[in-house]
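Look over this record before class:
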Amino acid sequence: MVPIQMVDLKRQYLKIKSEVDKAIHETLDATAFINGKAVGDFALELGEYLQSEHVIPCANGTDALQIAMMALELQPGDEVITPSFTYIATTEVMALLRLKPVFVDVDPITFCLNPEEVRKAITPRTKAIVPVHLYGQAADMQSVMAIAKEFGLYVIEDNAQAIGATIDMGSEGIRKTGTIGHIGCTSFFPSKNLGCFGDGGALMTNDGELARKIKMIANHGQSKRYYHDVVGCNSRLDTIQAAILRIKLRYLDEYNQSRRMAAANYNKSFEGIKSLTTPKTALGNIHVFHQYTMILEQVDRDGLVEYLASEGVPSMIYYPVPAHRQKMFSFLNLPDVDLPVTDWLTERVVSLPIHTELDQDQQELIIESVKSFVQQ
């Protein structure tokens, strides 16, 4: 059996090696390593896939979030509502821009931001909401957008883990995550559902003026070379990565379907085990399972992780320390922040391998290893 990985990038690459190698060599031959043709082509193709009017590639997903907040002209001291149960990049950029993250709790079933908690957290200083589509599941964007409209707030979607996921927006129809708020942000880190061979990211918007500002900020604040109208940064997706992403975008739906099939097999296999709560998909959503994350009850999590490793099965905890308890936010004086669902989840979640190359034998070993530990 091939050794099990959390994400098997090598076997994924080997399946499309000839296409990817050809695209890389064409880029090398053209020697347009920055802002080459593949960058523009990829932006157009991703826009078509997502049904987003504007896609602006950038250097990574963290930059995308920072650029989005700069484009919306958020100012130091402005409050931004976001979940604490997420990767640190979501809130790290707020600290860099001297914004104030206002942490709210998440739904214990979807793991995504709880709209009721958002409403409670709004103050006169609130300027934006950043929902995170965690683990590949869409947040409740119908409720988030309704709240944003009611209070005149911006919405920035953190779509780093859910590209290709969809949500039923009622009268607006089925929408892909990242295209619903004022700006969507995503990452092309190699392990993502759509990943490049280095770092990469993008912003999505249907607002032409916002798209213009985003492009300027990502390019040193200039719309014309050497004429800098606003403070910007240097955040570009290089041409080789864009060429690779063009190939992989063609396989994205297939990749996501493979992940859903693996998740369905896990769910069926763990059905009836009371100590395991398997991931749920919210009604009307299509989950893309960037991670397969279970909740453990009365299970020694550290013991399970150690046992799985001894059986050749990797596992991960996403995330052991929520953002509001990280030392980097000690300056906010948050000891009294009460996020019971977030704290409960961080003590109980564990993620199993899930990726496009996970075969039946590998999955059976993972399933039997989990069962062996939790049922002993």
